[in-house]
Amino acid sequence: MSNLEILELDPADGDLVSGAFEVLRASHAADHPDNPAPHEGKFAKGLIHPTPGEEEHTFIAVKDGTVVGIAEIGLPMRENLHFGWASIHVRPDRRRQGAGAALLDHFIAFTRGRGRTELTLDTLMTWEDGVARDKAGQEFLEKRGFKLALTSINRRCAVDALDADTEQRLLEKAQSAAGDDYEIVSWLGRTPEELVETMARIDSTILAEVPLGDLDLQPETIDAELKNAKADRNEAMGVIPIQTVARHRASGEVVANTAVFAYDDTEYEDAFQGITIVDKEHRGHRLGLLLKLVNLRLVRENFPQVRAIWTDNADVNAPMIDINVMLGYEIVDAMGEYQIKFAE
Ligand SMILES: CC(C)(COP(=O)(O)OP(=O)(O)OC[C@H]1O[C@@H](n2cnc3c(N)ncnc32)[C@H](O)[C@@H]1OP(=O)(O)O)[C@@H](O)C(=O)NCCC(=O)NCCS
């Protein structure tokens, strides 16, 4: 492609932002329409409000005035300074013309120029009896020497997957297993001020607990300031957390946490399961199942437009998958995280 240009997307340039979003919209429609659609408002606002603790750059490939591809790049700035990730999409009607390769070259040069040595890119893959996915992304990455480092399975659960009696029975079973040692607290939106410190503590354990495959990632330390900055970003993007935690009565600490994220958009029918984590010392009391069921009810009550919740779990995360299957989650596809490492 001779006259292909790679530019950094200026969030204030409405035409280019729309063109970039169109790449994501058309890719979703062509490649995986059964997954949640990208949301234009969230995309545009996310450009103006990057993820706290990360440097984010969005590059676009433009040909003859049309945005034909996009590379969304993230560089962690607090920990994992060796790391850089990206997600690349090319308009379905402009594929096999070199735009993807040009964006990939740019990603590698850009992140290597910032001293990053471990780079990752993701692509959807077929998983078991889920929906078949095109192999273009895998072929594209493997050709350039990237290796599959982590596979996460995407599952979908209708918000009314369980009949009311079954759901109630499961809830009661989980409540009696949890006993009286824990206070269950739920909220929508920002974490209540008095819980921010203890929530930051449990959030900091996430990367150490979640299976990461061959990714060489160190746990992040999440403090109250970072938590508040993330909450500001969610508010700015119209993303509403629905959160339920277990507070250990004896210590006052939050020892288990689950969150679902919905969009502030009455037309948007999907919501996203975030992390669920139970502190090591408090496992075995069905807290994970209990919190998820309480949170599911909150989603239904507060977001009647939401029809399904989506989750992704590392293929080796058996305990979490067992809970999800019990709740009615079904396999859709998988996300492959491909990695390449460079010498310093
Ligand atoms: C993967 C993707 C970004 C490739 O974009 P593209 O502009 O078509 O890629 P290029 O034209 O630069 O292809 C570069 C090379 O990748 C390989 N490749 C790309 N698409 C392929 C396909 N469908 N089948 C086999 N090999 C393919 C080829 O080796 C190709 O070189 P060639 O055309 O000289 O044979 C595009 O298909 C896409 O947007 N897919 C959906 C999103 C996705 O999976 N992204 C993940 C990759 S980061």
From TrEMBL:
Ranges where the N-acetyltransferase domain occurs: 4-165
Gene3D superfamilies: 3.40.630.30
Molecular functions (GO terms): acyltransferase activity, transferring groups other than amino-acyl groups
Keyword terms: Acyltransferase, Transferase
PROSITE patterns from the UniProt entry: GNAT (PS51186)
A Pfam family reported for this protein in Swiss-Prot or TrEMBL: Acetyltransf_1
InterPro entries in the record: Acyl_CoA_acyltransferase, Bact_Acetyltransf, GNAT_dom
Record has Transferase as a keyword: yes
Protein name as catalogued: Acetyltransferase (GNAT) family protein
